[in-house]
Specification:
InterPro entries: RVT-Znf (IPR026960). Pfam families: zf-RVT (PF13966). This protein is mainly alpha-helical. It has two domains: 43 residues, no CATH class; 116 residues, no CATH class. It is built from eleven helices and no strands. It starts with a helix and ends with a helix.
């Protein structure tokens, strides 16, 4: 499956999800587009997200790692804090280190388990101790500092720690 086909497939699934979850016609333009090119460009217009997602799509790596980077860029990973905001009674704490609230930046950077994995992999400590509010800002900084091969290794390490 080509990268464009994979992105079109993911967007078509998102379109169906949004259409099914919203009964109003406010998101009707998502399903009436003849091609997904305009929809993709609209998604990529958000600040920060565009550079990370574009660079991630150019990386020579497995498609599942492209999908993880795309999901991180759009903050679409299922985090306990996000699930708890939708489903009442769901626990918000991190299952790995028991911090009060598991957010995306915590799960990929601040969690003690993930931080140990990233520091063992040889990642610069300056980028681990700097405080970030948004995960996309951290990813942007990482992609500015690292070369392409190191970015592939970094994103692969993130994928492995996420799926561990």
């Amino acid at each position: 499956m080509t990268l464009r086909a994979m992105v079109e497939y993911m967007l078509s699934k998102i379109c169906k999800m949004w259409w099914a979850s919203k009964e109003s016609g406010s998101l009707k333009w998502w399903t009436n587009r003849p091609s997904l090119g305009p929809a993709l460009s609209k998604l990529l217009r958000h600040s920060g997200m565009a550079s990370v997602v574009r660079l991630a799509m150019k990386l020579n790596t497995l498609p599942k790692i492209h999908v993880l980077t795309w999901r991180v860029g759009h903050e679409l990973l299922p985090m306990n804090a996000k699930i708890a905001s939708i489903h009442q009674g769901f626990r918000q704490d991190c299952p790995r280190c028991s911090v009060d609230k598991e957010t995306l930046i915590h799960a990929l950077k601040d969690c003690s388990t993930v931080r140990a994995i990233l520091s063992i992999s040889g990642l610069d400590n300056k980028l681990l101790i700097k405080g970030y509010y948004c995960c996309i800002n951290w990813m942007e900084d990482m992609m500015r500092v690292l070369d392409k091969k190191a970015i592939v290794n970094f994103v692969t390490t993130l994928w492995n720690s996420w799926n561990n």
